[in-house]
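Typical record was shown:
=====
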Amino acid sequence: MQIGYLATLFCFGLVTLLTLFLWRGRLQGAWLIAALLLTAAWGGYLGFVGGSSHFNPTNQTFLDVLRGASWSLLLGRLIVVAGPESSNASFWRNHWLWGFAGWVVLLLLANTLSSLGVLTPTAAAMTAFGAPFSLSLITLVLLEQWYRRLGVEHRWGVKFLCVAIAVMFVSDFLLYSEALLFKGLDADLWEARGWIYAAMAPLVAISVARCRDWSRENRLSHRAVFFTSSLLLAGVYLVVMALVGYYLRWFGSGLGNAVQVVFVVLSLSLLTIVLMSGRYRSLLAVWISKHFLSYKYDYREQWMRANARFAALKIDDDSYVQLVLGIAEPIDSTGGAIWIEDEGALMPKAHWSLALDMPLLDDGDGGLLQYCLEQEWVINVPEYRRHPERYEGLELPKELLDEPRLWLLVPLIHQQHLYGMVALAEPRTERSVTWEDHDLLKALAGQVASLLAQRKLTESLANARQFEAYNQLSTFVVHDIKNVVAQLSLVVRNAERHRRNPEFVDDALDTLSNAVGRMNRMLSQLKQGAEPGPEVQVDAGEIAREVLAAQAGGAPVPQLDAVAESCFVEVDRDRLLAALCHLVQNAQDATPSDGSVVLSVVCEGSMVGFVVADSGAGMSAEFMRSGLFKPFVSTKGRAGMGIGVFEARQFARLYQGELQVESKLGKGSTFTLLLPNARLQSELGVVGGQG
C-alpha cells in the first residue's frame, strides 16, 4: 500500500463532503466537486493498487489525465464565467474549451493505444509521462491567469486554494519533467507526491468555507500576459530540452551518461539565466506590449484614476499638489514640483517633497521653455547630464542641474501653448525610462494642461462677467442720471420765468428733493455693486403714489387711476421704484404735453400689476418683436438710451414676474409690470402648512 495516496483519498473525501454541504446547488460547486472526487479516486487507486501486482500504468495515466483535466476545466470556467460575459452559455461557446477538450481526447486516445501495445516503447513512455506533464503545465498557466485577474479585495477567499493547486501541480511538473528527461519516475518524488496532495487538502477546505461562490467580477491585469507568456515559453523550452535529452539517450548512447547530465545542467542553467535577465524581461515585455495589445501600463485604469483624481479638485492653490501627484504616482516618483505660466514665464506654484522654487524664464531660442514648446518631449535630466548632445539646443538652468534628486521635466502643453511644467524626483528604485513611460507622461501631462487651460479660461470668464456686471450697472446709473438731469433742466428753464411764484418754488424744491433721493439710491447701488438690495414687503399703492410724485415735474403730468386694495409685493424697494419711474418717464417722453399718462395698480390672480398707459405715438409690432427689449435700442433716437424697458423686464424676471406690452402706432402703449402678490402667497403657504 501507498500510505501517502491513501491519506490523499481520506483528506479529499472529507473536503468533497464539506463542499457538497456548503456548495449545494451552485454551478461552480459541481465543477469543484468533480475535481475533488477525481482527485480522491486517483489517490484511492494509487493507494490500494500502486504497490501491488495489479498496478497498471495505463490506468494510472488515464486517472492522471482525468484529474488534471478536471482542475483545468474548473479554472477555465472560473476565468470565463468571471469575465465580462458571465453567462453559462459563454463558457460553452469558448474556443479554448473545445481546443482543450480535443487535447484531452488526444491524450486519452494515445493512452489507449499504448495499453493495446500499438505504440513503440518510446512513444508509450512519452504518452505516460508527457500527458500528465502537459496537463500540469496547462493547469498552472490557468491558475496564474485566474489569480492575476482577481482584484486584490477578492484574493483573500481563494488564496489558500491557489496555493494548494500550485503546490500539487508543481510537484506533478517536477516529477514528470524529470521522468521525461530520464525516462523513468523518481521513487522518492513519487512517494512524496501522495503526502503533498494530502497536505494540500486542508487549504482547499479553508477556501471552500471562506468563499462559497467564486463567480467574481475579475479584471485582466496587463502584467498577466507577461508572466503567462514567460511560463509558457519556459514550458516549451523544457519540452524541447526533454526531446533533445531523449535523442541523446537513445541515439547518442555512445556519448555516455556524463554528457546527458552535463546537457541537463546546462539547459537548466541557461533557463535560469534567461529568466533572471533584466534585458530578457524588458525585451519580452516590449514585444508583448507591441504585438499582443498588453502594455506595461493599463492605460484605461490610469486614465480613469487620473479622471477621478482631477475631477474632484477645487479651484485653489492646494489642488496643484494633487496635479503633481497625478503625474508622479503612476511612475513611482518620490516627489515633484509644478510651475504655472504667467505672462511669458513659468512661476513656481506648489511642490511635494521636491523644493524647487525658482522661476523659469524664456531665454530665447536656446531656452528651456522654447525647447519644450517646440519638441514637446519629456526631458530626462540624468540623461542630459551624461549625454547633453542628445538634447541639441537645450541649456538647462544651473538651479535645476544642482538638484541631485531631479529626474524628469514634463512640459504641460495644450493646443501649442505651454501652460506649465512638472518636475519629478527620482523613483524609489532605479529604473530606465522607456517609450511607454514617455507616452503615459505625455498623456497625463496633456490632461493636466487641459485642466490648467480650462481653469485659466474660467478665471478670465469670471473677470469678464464681473466687468460686464459693473458695466451694466454703470449703464443703468447713466440712464438714471440722464433722467435726473432732465428734471433739473426743466426746473432751470422755468426758474427765470416763475422764480417769484411760490407754487413753482414748492415744485422746484420737491423736484430737487426727488433728484437728491434718486442720486442717493444710485450711490447706494454703486457701493453694493450689481447685487440686489434687501427684499421688503411694500404696499403697491404707496409705491405708485411715490412714482407719481417723482415724475410730477415732467409733462404730461402722470395721473393715478384705480388702486386695488391689499396688494403687496416683496422686492427691493428702490429698484422697483426705479423701474416704474423708467416706465413712466418713457411714457412721458413718447406722449405730447396735451396727452395722458395713467398709472394704476391691479390684482390679477396671484400677481400684482403696475399698469402704465399712455396716449403717445405707440410702437410697431416689428419694433416690439425685435428691438424693444434690447439695450441701447430706442425709438427716441439720440435722446434715449433704450435701457429703461430692458431694466424693468430684468427686474421683473428677477422676482419671478414679467413685463407685458401692448401698443399700436398712433394709439399709445400700455406696459404692465407683474410681480407676485406677497400677501396671497403667504396665506397660501399657511394653508398648505395646516393641511
Notes: The CA atoms of residues 417 and 670 lie 56 Å apart. The domain at 307-457 is CATH 3.30.450.40 (Beta-Lactamase). The longest helix spans residues 435-498. The two ends are 89 Å apart (CA to CA).
